[in-house]
Design brief:
With about 130 residues, this protein is mainly alpha-helical. It is built from four helices and no strands.
């Protein structure tokens, strides 16, 4: 459920920011046809960050060893970095577009995680009150 909320919210944020900024895309390299959407922020960067960070946030509490948790976060960071780099390398985004996608996703994932934390805390308080 949290993954669905995270991704849906990222979609709404991406659309709202693209609509709000109306930043034109750079000329792509390698003869690639530029997408017809606006450039700022990078949707690929935002969605990959939101998806892999949410997976890491949800899975690491369930992993027993510290090195395995670190490995999950390292894999998530590498995948997100490679996706962001590909957007710049292909020339379909400016570096600031990718950074804005990352920052927006970071803030959104933290907000969802914090909301989940407060929800679980309140739920546990309610359970303890019933006992």
């Amino acid at each position: 459920m949290l993954l669905a909320v995270t991704m849906a919210g990222a979609g709404v944020l991406n659309a709202a920011l693209k609509f709000g900024f109306h930043r034109a895309r750079p000329s792509p390299y390698f003869g690639i046809t530029a997408p017809h959407s606006f450039s700022y922020p990078s949707g690929h960067a935002m969605f990959s960050f939101a998806f892999f960070a949410a997976i890491a946030v949800l899975s690491t509490p369930r992993i027993g060893t510290r090195w395995a948790r670190a490995l999950v976060w390292l894999a998530a960071a590498i995948l997100v970095a490679l996706i962001g780099f590909s957007r710049i390398y292909l020339g379909v985004h400016y570096p600031s577009d990718v950074l804005a996608g990352y920052l927006t996703a970071f803030i959104w994932v933290m907000a969802v995680g914090l909301g989940d934390h407060f929800y679980e805390h309140r739920r546990s308080q309610t359970r303890q009150g019933r006992k």
